[in-house]
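Exercise (ungraded).
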Amino acid sequence: MHQITGSDLEQPCSQARPDRPPQSAPDRSPLPYSQTPSLGHIDSNQVVVLLLYLTASTAFLAFPALVMTRAGSAGWLSMALSAGLGYIALWGWIRWSETTASKGFVPALRETLGRFFGDFVGFLVFSYLLSSTGLLARVFSGGTIIGLLPEVPIEILQGTLIVVSAFGAWLGLEPVARTGVVLAPVVTVSLSVVLLASYRLVDFRHVFPLWGLGPLPVLKQGLRGAGIFANVSALVILKAYMRNPRLLRAAGMWGMSLGAFFMVITTLVVAAAFPYPESTRQLFPLGVLARSIMLGKFLQRLEALFSFSWFFSIAVNLAIAYVLSLIVFSQLSDSQTVRPYVFPVSSFTFGLGLLPPSLVHAVSWLDAIYSWAGNSVLWLGWALYFISRVRYGNRSGRTGTGGDTVRRREGNGPGDRANRSKGVVPGGATGGDGS
Amino acid sequence: MRSTASQGTALRVTVVGLLVIFTSAAAGGCYGMRELEDLSLITLLGIDKGKTDPILVTAVVAIPRRIRPSAAGGGGGEGKPVVVVSREGKSIVHALQRIDESLARDVTTIETTYVVLGEELAREDASCILDVFTRNLEFRHTTLIAVCQGTAQDFLTRLSPAVEADPATYLVGLTTVAYNDLGVSPLVTVHEFVLAATTVESEPFVPYLVTTRKTQEKVPPPQGGEKKQGEEGSEAGQGGGGQEGEEVVAVRGGAVFRVSDGKIKMVGTLDPRETTAALIMRGELRRGNIEISLPGAPGTQSIIKFHHISAHPRVERNGREIQVTYKVRVTASLDEAQGQSQEVSPRFASAIARTCTEELRALLERTIEKLKSMRSDSVDLGMSVHAKFATWKEWEEFDWPSQFPQTRVSFDVKVFVFTTGFTSRPPVPR
């Protein structure tokens, strides 16, 4: 089996797969999705890790403190409620993706909503990804200046972060996913060490009064904060790149579960470490927590570990967000490639990130984007599913691009191998854009 | 084809290489770097009330080559290992900038291990330290904090430890031992101080340091001299002649604060025994001891050493009435008994446990009543009480700071003395 690597990027599928004859004549019409260019392929385990980065990286920033501001000491309950809503919304995306077979995101939108509205919704999702990416880079850079490198200009930090992330996106989805998997244990271990080492600062009596600012504020924040899990919608964008799309549901649930667990635990630890209302003053509570750890003379600067996990997770998060943005934009423009967009898109996010006049504005804008745009994107899955059911019933769930029966290509990753023995994955030739 | 491929590889290697160099340079903090030898490292920071400006900052700046022991490679022991500089300013940073003007190096608080507050400032308002430690990256949250008797300037100027070359190391060791091994002092970081000062449920509680004499000789009061501020109640005067013995620093329990009207005011002190009791109520006591008179032998002092201590407050709420019962369980042993008491019997062991229990209960009750009279919840009782409230609004309406003195607190104490030191008694004690 031909192993798709980074060198296959931007090559039409027919060139990437030597067992297929080259196209005889250039076809200017939009190619069906199964023939769009390759960004590599990922297995279900990598999808889980990518979703974890996308949903949980914001815990490193100001969001635990923002949740505390609106829900008080019960911020962790709000986060748990948001996570529950995230599950429900994820289920909507999964149900919708089942009605669109192996189509890419934008082609599937077009199938469900028609060309105009499909592109319109796709553009909105693209805008959401782009704006959240730019502001996330800004907020992270601002946090780095406050917490680590006070004398470095923010443009340098933000530029560095964006260059690194955009370079990852330029390499493709598969390298980004592999990087994410490699760094995931590093991030997890270093963050766990920081959280465990802060045991002396944690007092679970701070979590009381249990309902914080009251059941209604907790409920409101739970609804509003669900937008932070909007990135689970990336599952349907990534679906087409999975070696075995049949594992989409399991991958989505695992990714969401890990992300939700991480977010709830983080919020709980922050609530227990910083009694309300002090918790609301912390711009980057986890960073402050890491700075406050004192384990004796030999382990004085445990916060260095936090810096690793902080930078790695945000950089991978941004790289994934770039890849997703590029995929959506590439599909919207019906182009065969993503690389020409890397520089403009990253430059745009660089400028966008510098728009807020201060870090406070940047946090506020990012919060608004997650709250409103995020929630809209989150629940879009169910809306699309219902529209799809109304328009097509169950028909499209069993059809491919041209109405033919979908056959998925057998994957070669660890996650796929695990299922091959169960006979779940049929042989086939579709499923990714590189088929 | 080969040349195209190799060109592509070379391009990729170049791009990745430049990226690595760029990232390392930018993210590694090379921008705006300051060399270590260009810095003046402040190891101890004293904050007092100023005369012309609001704040007087005293900085103990380390001279590393003098702190290094002589055996480690020369240079040690030549002159004082630190320089003490004081300047007034409108804020801490402003005063530090003035200190900067008089030193050839850039001062930094990145290595500051202790902040010492002068008592006058602490009694008036200690909130001046909150902002800079919360906002400024150079001020570390792990810095320890204490209040000293008198002014911090005087305290730090006269601080010349005999057992450590570095005064900061000495001060940290002093309070760490007092907290960990003796249980007679709290050990508080600025982070914990800030949390206690900014929440309703607790009040700051920090070590209280005094300057005393190494020997216990009586010090004649200074003839005709004015008493210095803060000298009242000190064990030893500070203006005596040099014949009474060298001055040393000692921990004398804890300084208790109360936050009201936006000010953080020191409202009193707890002596070392009361501090032990307060640490028990805070659930922080690791080791400690209590002195009791042996049963049947009044006036015979003995030391009961605590091995394991647990204290769990049980809160009952009836409307606005709060009843707290601390369940205190102690495992202890008799460490020393003055005199010739060699009594060994189960009855004697039970009597010791009973006496110890009563002593400890009395100490705890005395301490909580003292804290109530100072209206300072330095034992974090509010942290346990607020669990009885469903929402923050209810808790705010309850107004814990005003309710704390009315709270009924009782102690269910049980002390298990597992050894009195002997298992058998000589037939003819001598």
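Further reading is listed at the end of the chapter. For now, observe: Chain A has a mean pLDDT of 79. Chain A touches chain B through 42 residues (CB under 8 Å).
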